Amino acid sequence: MRLLIENNLEFLVGGAYAVAQYTGISRDTKDFDLLLRPTDVDAALSIWRQAGYNADFEFSHWLAKVRSKRACVDVIFCSGNGLATIDDIWFAEAREADILGMRVRVAPPEELIWQKAYIMERERFDGADVAHLLANCTSQINWPRLIQRFGPDWRVLWSHLVLFGFIFPAKRHLIPLDVVKEFNFRIVKEHNETQSNGNCCNGPLLSRIQYLPDVTSGGLLDAREEARCQMTLAEIQRWTAAAGNR
């Protein structure tokens, strides 16, 4: 972080350290997450290499890593599904916090929710982080922006809001009633509508491996191949293959 500050490269702290700032829930993690704009990653990696660290891209569409003998830093500039690009809004809405003895900025709760809501892998589900962020940040959340972030994937957010009411029955009222009414209206409105992309499977946006049968032999199109996902076909194949037999 000091090297980035010295070289005037903006960054945000994400992951478990950011979640802890909003929820008070700390947990041991294997790495430390820094969020950078895609256009700043090459410069940051060069700076870290010159300082003696092992720094390079892990997956070209969303993740780089910086390693030393004692630690590993994930450098995140998008999301694994190619949707949640780290853009200027992340920085404009960031909050300040003291982390590892430094005054730095952390990712805003809206964008953390947006980033984590899609992670529903067989071996990892970030729904608990989403629920705890909602439980602690509902009064701070810019709901129009959060809903806008999900765009056509609003059902993903809605699913987490429904689960939130199940997980914390006494806190259901924290979700604004207008938001509940809006999503209920959308559900009813869409129920009998014919979808223009009815041959598409959105499952790979949630899990890179669990919906492969649907897009490889089930005749459905992989939603990650849509233009809105910042992934090439080669990147999709490499990211999927990396899941192995998990």
Q: How is this structure best summarized?
A:
It contains eleven helices and nine strands. It is of the alpha/beta class and 246 residues long.
Instruction: Compute the separation of the termini in Å.
Output: 33 Å
Biggest beta-sheet profile: 5 strands, mixed
Predict the CATH topology of the domain at 1-107. Answer: Beta Polymerase, domain 2
- Fraction in beta strands: 5-15%
Oligomer: single chain
> What's the helix count?
11
What does the average pLDDT come to?
A: 94
Shape annotation? globular
**Proportion in helices:** 40-55%
Could you give the count of β-strands?
9
Account of the 3D structure:
There is one protein chain. By secondary structure, this protein is an alpha/beta fold. Among the domains are: 1-107, 2-Layer Sandwich (Beta Polymerase, domain 2); 200-241, no CATH class. It has eleven helices and nine strands. It has helices at residues 2-6, 15-23, 41-50, 88-92, 109-117, 127-137, 143-150, 154-167, 177-191, 212-216, 233-241; strands spanning 12-13, 32-35, 54-59, 63-67, 72-76, 95-99, 102-106, 200-201, 221-222. The strands form three sheets. Strands 1-2-5-4-3 form a five-stranded mixed beta sheet. Strands 6-7 form a two-stranded antiparallel sheet. The protein has a two-stranded parallel ribbon with strand order 8-9. Helix 5 (109-117) packs antiparallel against helix 6 (127-137), helix 5 (109-117) runs parallel beside helix 7 (143-150) and helix 6 (127-137) crosses helix 8 (154-167). The protein is globular and about 60 Å long.
